[in-house]
Amino acid sequence: MKIAPSLLSCDFSVMGEEIRRMDKAGADWMHLDVMDGHFVPNITFGAPVIKWVRKYTDKPFDVHLMISDPLKYIDDFADAGADIITFHVECDSDIDATIDKIKGRGILPGLVIKPNTPAEAVFPYLDKLALVLVMTVEPGFGGQSFMADMLPKVTAIKEECARRGLDLLIEADGGIGEATVAQAAGAGVDVCVAGTAVFKADDAAKAIRALQSVN
Ligand code: DX5
Ligand code: ZN
Asked: What residue's CA is closest to ligand 1, atom 4?
């Protein structure tokens, strides 16, 4: 299992150091949650902050856009150093145009689905995507409980990809820790985002290793 610590749970006054700490602790990717206070009821940070912290690691930056109009900002996040950009199928931007814009900047595109959105919502776009992110909490805040009833969507997307001969990664985000990671792995999740479970652990390296060792 690949583990992407969510910086939403870090000490923002030393975000660069927190990224370095996660790098040394063995994180696979850095997960950066961008919220606009409109698509979700919370505000975090944007491209300028990501640009400043980019230099603290060489590991992939997995930028999760919880914003209403992602298309408008793809160039900013590309310039800031994103390697992967995921955005919500429920957003207001044109989905195909946004995927094309991300790919045009040499970045891996992913679509995200909220808990009330069916797996089938991403099917029309699968052959253009590098990954699908299945939310296992309502987006907006860290520290919520894992929704195991989202896992059938992972299986459905996996099956559709297999049927069409596509090789996409499936990422899960929200409420993932030692108690829930095995369920995600069992459903076929390739990458787990973990905020609270990693940042609140006494030993981040040990916490990341424990999550990675599940398959
Ligand atoms: C929620 C964010 C998540 C969140 C995960 O909107 O997308 O990435 O930070 O945090 P935990 O692991 O604490 O649920
Ligand atoms: Zn996220």
From this structure: 142
